[in-house]
Amino acid sequence: MRPGTRGVVLDLDDTLYLERDYVRSGFGAVAEHLAAGWDVDAARVREHLWRRFTEGERGSHFDDLVSGDPALRDRVHVPDLVEVYRHHVPAIRLLPGIEDLVGALRSAGLRTGVISDGALASQQAKVDALAVDRLIEGPVVLTDVWGREGWKPHPRAFLHVQQAWSLPPEDLVYVGDNPHKDFDAPRDLGWACVRLRLPGQLHADVPDRVVPDLTVTSVGALAEALTPAPRLR
After folding, report:
1. 3-state DSSP helix/strand/coil % of the chain, to nearest 5
2. What does pLDDT average to in each consecutive run of 10 residues of the chain (233 residues)?
3. Rounded distance, CA 9 to CA 152, Å?
4. In degrees rounded to 5, what are phi and psi of residue 5?
5. What's the sign of the alpha-carbon dihedral 27, 28, 33, 34?
6. What is the 3-state secondary structure (H, E, C) of 37-97?
7. d(CA 42, CA 30)
8. What is the biggest distance separating any 2 CA atoms in the chain, rounded to whole angstroms?
């Protein structure tokens, strides 16, 4: 990367951990909630929701579940299931190598931060489950604090980090996974952009729309790209 890099900001979903693990965890919480209050089998609910997800369904899992099950139809409200999903304690973990990567960046004197979109309750639950506040120096910016209009590709979060660190854009790098939205704002502002492209990411097969400065296909390669080489004595 640029030799003058002084700060690295990472996305959260599908960058620090695999988002599909959060989805699976949330479906499990919804299944247990339904099993506790209605005459449904939790394992069957989990299987149904996960199958629809792996088939590519996005956004209507709970509507399909409720409308297709006589035990739930007209008795269960989809917004209530969404709340259970968003507020559950997620069973997720950092991708292998991420903790070492962040430690190497901080040891090299680089600042670290996070910018992430998504419903605030969900994103905060992920931050808590992954202990991001102990891992990352900060800031940890959850863009939903400004409402949906503050989500990427809006530049507000990136400007916030620039100002918090008092660093020029040419000293900053953003690492993300989603070519639909992750790189528009930082590229326009003058940041360097790195795409982390891993098997299992929800957007792994999506082609680049804004071409990043670099694409890497492992956390190890990301560490190699971002960590300054040792100086020879």
Report:
1. 45, 10, 40
2. 87 98 98 93 95 89 91 92 97 98 95 98 98 96 97 98 97 97 97 97 94 96 83 39
3. 14
4. -60, 130
5. positive
6. HCCCCHHHHHHHHHHHHHCCCCCCHHHHHHHCCCCCCCCCCHHHHHHHHHHCCCCCCCCCC
7. 9
8. 73
Q: What is the CB-side half-sphere exposure of residue 142 using CA atoms within 13 A?
A: 16
193 three-class SS: strand
d(CA 154, CA 88): 28
CA distance linking residue 90 with residue 21, whole number of Å: 9
- The token duo for 213 is 């400065």
Nearest to 10 by CA among 167, 172, 207, 118: 172
Q: Which two tokens stand for residue 224?
A: 């190699």
**How many of the other CB atoms lie within 10 Å of CB of 71?**
12
Distance from C-alpha of 46 to C-alpha of 31, rounded to nearest angstrom: 6
Closest CA to 125 of 21, 8, 7, 196: 21
Tokens of 29: 């919480």
- The answer to whether the CB of 6 falls within 8 A of the CB of 167 is yes
pTM here is: 0.93
Per DSSP (E only), the strands in the chain are 7-10, 111-116, 140-142, 172-176, 192-196, 214-216
How far apart, in Å, are the Cα atoms of 187 and each of 1, 39, 43, 174, 205? Answer: 14, 52, 45, 9, 21
- Cα separation, 10 vs 27, in Å, equals 26
